[in-house]
């Protein structure tokens, strides 16, 4: 992948739009930064390919629907189900999950993947690092 800028931060041509279909993924290197690019509901999301836990290649993990607990009228847990509208990515090293839409750790708190600016123009995807 080649940079289209001279000084940092640089804009990188990450590939063709067709390389990231709906619910798809593309992992690229922009200089020394590995980046995962995802498309969810038509919107691109890009994150540094580095887990907050121990630096694992989070963007290469399994993409799974969010698991939600089912409650009865007394708010007691009666089971669980998948929320197909919300996707998570699970780190291949130790299983930490993050929202694909926000980059936030599924367990709550302040942990979040580093979001990378991403844009699409004339059939190409660009990231700025
Ligand atoms: S490095 Fe990702 S969960 Fe440990």
Topology of this structure?
Elements: E1 11-16, E2 25-30, E3 33-40, E4 43-48, E5 62-71, E6 77-90, E7 97-99, E8 118-121, E9 124-128
Antiparallel strand pairs: 1-9, 2-3, 3-4, 5-6, 6-7, 8-9
| Alpha plus pi helix count | 0
- Beta-strand fraction estimate: over 45%
CATH superfamily: Rieske [2Fe-2S] iron-sulphur domain
Gap from first CA to last CA: 13 Å
Please give the CATH architecture: 3-layer Sandwich
Q: Which structural class fits the helix and strand makeup? A: mainly beta
Overall 3D form:
elongated
Across the major sheet, the strand order is 1-9-8
The total tally of domains equals: 1
Helix content: under 10%
Write up this protein.
By secondary structure, the chain is mostly beta strands. The protein has one domain: 3-layer Sandwich (Rieske Iron-sulfur Protein), CATH 2.102.10. Helices cover 0% and strands 48% of the residues. The protein contains no helices and nine strands. Strand 8 and strand 9 form a beta hairpin. The chain is elongated, with a radius of gyration of 16 Å. The site of FE2/S2 (inorganic) cluster has 11 residues, from loops. The site of FE2/S2 (inorganic) cluster (FES) has 11 residues, from loops.
